[in-house]
């Protein structure tokens, strides 16, 4: 156990094709779907064999930052807020649709976090940066019935909240969300910051509950996060001084 409140259970070093891994989603049967932030390809990685089983092309080059699954469909987020829906993504010829959301039209926005909220039939989008919003971070909802997002965020995370007091530096630099996930057992939101590695855990309504600091020696550049149905937590790191990897970790929570 580290002083930061986590333990690494297992580590998988990834092949070079996933050096820029930016998002992961648990498929099942020890398999994880991965995207990287340069090419429009979805990769299926097998945790048992430690190999990429296959890749699925869904678009051309772009800054792809997040992936999530809902049933047999995959959703991939581009950093400008565009969402790609890959229906029956494991079929030989999956259908791909692209949605230009209202968040895509917001000026100066960079969105990197994506997860499925199956209870409400929607996706959650975590904003990393947005012009003229220095003291809070926004989480938007993408309605899967209407295939669009609201112009107003679902909730805001205030960077002046007491949970961030342990973070040194200017308030506007305290937190930069790069990924979001929903714990399958508790419903809590897990929001990952890769710039200064840490994990914010919030209630369902976005109220901050706990901030867990990560050691940079373990988390070189964490950008992906996913859960197994049982609640096992996986975090992926882009290649830095060592190969890209996926970590299975447990947390030493101080709050419930």
Summarize the structure.
This protein has no helices and 21 strands.
CATH architecture: 6 Propeller
Overall pLDDT: 94
CATH-derived topology: Neuraminidase
- Number of continuous helical runs: 0
- How much helical structure, as a percent, in the residues? under 10%
Biggest beta sheet summary = 5 strands, antiparallel
CATH class: Mainly Beta
How many distinct beta strands?
21
Structural class: mainly beta
How much strand content do the residues show? Answer: over 45%
What does this structure look like?
It is found in: Cell membrane. Keywords: Cell membrane, Membrane. With 256 residues, the protein is mainly β. It has a single domain, classed as Neuraminidase, CATH 2.120.10. The protein is 0% helix and 52% strand. The protein has no helices and 21 strands. Strand 20 and strand 21 form a beta hairpin.
Question: How is the topology of this model organized?
Answer:
Blueprint: E1 6-13, E2 21-28, E3 31-36, E4 41-46, E5 51-57, E6 64-70, E7 73-78, E8 82-87, E9 95-100, E10 109-117, E11 122-130, E12 136-143, E13 148-149, E14 155-158, E15 177-182, E16 189-193, E17 198-202, E18 208-213, E19 222-227, E20 233-237, E21 245-251
Antiparallel strand pairs: 1-21, 2-3, 3-4, 4-5, 6-7, 7-8, 8-9, 10-11, 11-12, 12-13, 12-14, 15-16, 16-17, 17-18, 19-20, 20-21
